[in-house]
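User: I'm curious whether this sequence folds into something compact or stays loose and floppy. Could you predict its structure so I can see for myself?
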Amino acid sequence: MRPDYFAGDVPMKNLSNFKIFIVAIATLGFVGKSGATTQDHVKRVFYNVTWVLTQIGSSPVTKNQPELSFDTAKELVSGSTGVNRLHAHFTLTGQELVFGPIATTRRMGTKEAMSVEARFLHQLVFVNRWRINEDALELLRDGLMLLKFTRKPALAFASAEARFSARLLKMLFTSSE
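Assistant: Here's the prediction. I'll summarize afterward.
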């Protein structure tokens, strides 16, 4: 009796490896068509996503949550401090993220909202790295988490693409220590 073979000479036990290989080739093919590099994948994590602040240091933020949206083509970030609008230039290179001077409007809010704004802006100045951790964006200073964000629901396709890119980046940049 002939052993279980697939397509003539490929053993069935190698089928799962074959599927992984095909998925990898398809992913690389998609990346190759667009001329994408690792830097392009990094930019996709930020593309068409609004990030909502959920934590400053170890303190949760549940009211007056600041939001950030990155325009990677123009290297501009815009959003809200929870009270005021903000705009700044940024530099994104691999896992490095640095913000330039931050411009904000100057509206007044409640004492609690102004406290969140002050702590948020204070920490944003010190950011020099980023990472994706369980679908959350963490902005860091030399490995110390300063600010933590979650995705604000957006268009389903863009959000799914960002999640895929985030997971791919996590696999690429996570060292097996």
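Summary: Residues 5-34 form one domain. Residues 23 and 29 are 10 Å apart (CA to CA).
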